[in-house]
Specification:
3 strands, 199 residues, minor pseudopilin epsh fold, mainly alpha, three-stranded antiparallel beta sheet
């Protein structure tokens, strides 16, 4: 079974002015396509062929060619899925209650998430994820994610790409500006849906 290159549910310019069309075109059409193709090549003829992406992430931690490309494939699919052109601030009652109980308020959660993303050294991702029914914020380097159980362990419901290719054309070295802009295009309906499937 080959992994399919995921088409976007919106046009490359749909997230403007927060994320520009040229960045989206390169990020999705080149980087994400590259991870997809390299993942398929890396697993061809191996015991990983035919496994789900989650099974690969859990079991290929010691095989860099598979680990990196599987992470790139999974992480980007999540990233595209939890963004929407108009933004959507409708956090479900269940997720809002969990955020309030865990962090104290949505604003405290947002501050923690922004800090995790802003302070991750070099390339990586920041996450809101679920572990044993509880919410956590954290960050991972490169294309790692919580499913791998390396720095973190759990199932991500929200993730931001903080590799420079995700923002440098528009924001240059101003990563915090990009992170704030990301909050304008999050689809909280989708994030809530992911959370409610896990608890």
């Amino acid at each position: 079974m080959k992994f399919e290159f995921t088409e976007l549910a919106y046009n490359y310019d749909a997230l403007e002015p927060h994320i520009d069309a040229r960045t989206m075109e390169i990020h999705h059409g080149k980087h994400h396509a590259g991870y997809t193709n390299k993942l398929n090549s890396a697993i061809e003829g191996t015991s990983f062929e035919g496994l789900s992406i989650e099974e690969i992430l859990k079991n290929a931690k010691d095989i860099p060619a598979i680990r990196n490309n599987a992470g790139g494939y999974y992480n980007h699919n999540l990233f595209w899925e939890i963004m929407t052109p108009s933004g959507n601030k409708n956090v479900s009652t269940k997720l809002k209650k969990a955020i309030d109980n865990t962090f104290g308020s949505f604003e405290v959660f947002k501050a923690e998430f922004i800090a995790a993303a802003a302070t991750q050294f070099g390339s990586g991702w920041a996450w809101l994820y679920v572990h044993n029914g509880e919410l956590y914020v954290g960050a991972t380097p490169n294309q790692d994610n919580p499913i791998m159980g390396i720095e973190l362990e759990g199932e991500p419901i929200l993730g931001i790409d903080i590799w420079e290719h995700a923002y440098y054309l528009k924001y240059q070295n101003l990563r915090p500006d990009y992170i704030n802009a990301f909050f304008e295009v999050i689809d909280w309906n989708k994030v809530s849906e992911k959370y409610e499937k896990l608890v």
